[in-house]
């Protein structure tokens, strides 16, 4: 995969990660090429899944929401895919990541500021996951740097 | 803050979190309003910092990069802001989050697939942080759901 992606592709990804709303024209000017070529490359990157998503990152604190990360360690032999399927449709579960290392599963939750409600959500998730060995619960209070590439 | 933000603002944030490249016209059509009104609201949301960033989310695996999350627990009395300042300019440190709970500091790293290099980066970060009590190192292997609002 990586060898289908050249240096110009990498520059396009970098620029879009800094500002996903850049127009084809702005990208073309910066990279001294044409809008058509930019559009073609972006289509390719989207099709290959190299660019997963264009998104707006809200400031959850300012919106009155709480952002928390659950770092979950599963017991040996747990079926992580089955667990992910159960979590997939819980509305406030926004990001699900398979992992190795300290945690096998990382779950990001965005929920209204309401500790009672958050407790219910954590309980719901705990129940949905058989074989939890350990769960680290971390409440994000401020993001001081945010880049994606 | 939250009361300056109305239901239409919330809808705009939701739509942009699903696709940050939507045009003013597309947003206006979906929300049955005008491009001018959408543009004015987006300006307001950006100015208030309610929208932090428009970004492209790459698939790091497909690009040949490793994505890891360090969950750091500091000893009582550590100066977290001083630590963040030291981490801010390390190139592969992409996201820095202040937190409470299991971890006081969450650091997201994007680095080329090269375990020797990653070890060096982790060592560099460990040295930059006085008063680490515990560090959880989690390598993200796959993201199965990704939403930001």
UniProtKB/TrEMBL annotation, chains A, B:
<dbReference type="InterPro" id="IPR019888">
    <property type="entry name" value="Tscrpt_reg_AsnC-like"/>
</dbReference>
<dbReference type="InterPro" id="IPR011991">
    <property type="entry name" value="ArsR-like_HTH"/>
</dbReference>
<keyword id="KW-0805">Transcription regulation</keyword>
<keyword id="KW-0238">DNA-binding</keyword>
<dbReference type="GO" id="GO:0043200">
    <property type="term" value="P:response to amino acid"/>
</dbReference>
<dbReference type="Pfam" id="PF13412">
    <property type="entry name" value="HTH_24"/>
</dbReference>
<dbReference type="GO" id="GO:0005829">
    <property type="term" value="C:cytosol"/>
</dbReference>
<dbReference type="InterPro" id="IPR036390">
    <property type="entry name" value="WH_DNA-bd_sf"/>
</dbReference>
<dbReference type="InterPro" id="IPR000485">
    <property type="entry name" value="AsnC-type_HTH_dom"/>
</dbReference>
<keyword id="KW-0804">Transcription</keyword>
<dbReference type="InterPro" id="IPR011008">
    <property type="entry name" value="Dimeric_a/b-barrel"/>
</dbReference>
<dbReference type="GO" id="GO:0043565">
    <property type="term" value="F:sequence-specific DNA binding"/>
</dbReference>
<feature type="domain" description="HTH asnC-type">
    <location>
        <begin position="5"/>
        <end position="66"/>
    </location>
</feature>
<protein>
    <submittedName>
        <fullName>Transcriptional regulator</fullName>
    </submittedName>
</protein>
<dbReference type="InterPro" id="IPR036388">
    <property type="entry name" value="WH-like_DNA-bd_sf"/>
</dbReference>
